Task: structure prediction
Amino acid sequence: MLNSGTRFNDSLVSGVAGAVALTAVHQAARAVTDSAPRMDVVGMRALARGADAAGRHTPATHRGLYGATLAGDLICNSAYYSLATTYTRGTLMGLAAGIGALVLPERLGLGTPPKSELLSNQVMTVAWYVVGGLAAACTSIWLANRRAEATREFVGGY
Result:
């Protein structure tokens, strides 16, 4: 029987896998094309606005702000994707996050993501969030199967 600590650790690892997959695809696309989705720009706007509202200073350089935003994205996306324990859930969570990434920034006063008017950009945005959800789900399922197999071996194959 898995204890809650083991399940929590597995969920955390799965969430990190989803967040890293999303971030890796995003970074690779940014290196290849100028019309890649730029959710990082929206993240930097949000971080700067939040820091100002809290009376804190934003990092002094663009690189510092970008790094802080990337770290925040990885943490938040890891927490979000830690709930993606099946392929269906991972797909639905990815769709929800991708659509939210297209719709929410302007409604939250963060402006529109650069080049988000392009259909290709919109499709990439949603697809990348789905990739993150599926990576998290795949990792979750793999970890659960690995633990089940280890348990069977421990009890002599029964």
Notes: The chain has a mean pLDDT of 92. The helical segments are 4-32, 39-53, 62-81, 87-107, 119-154. Residues 4-154 form one domain. The chain has one domain: 4-154.
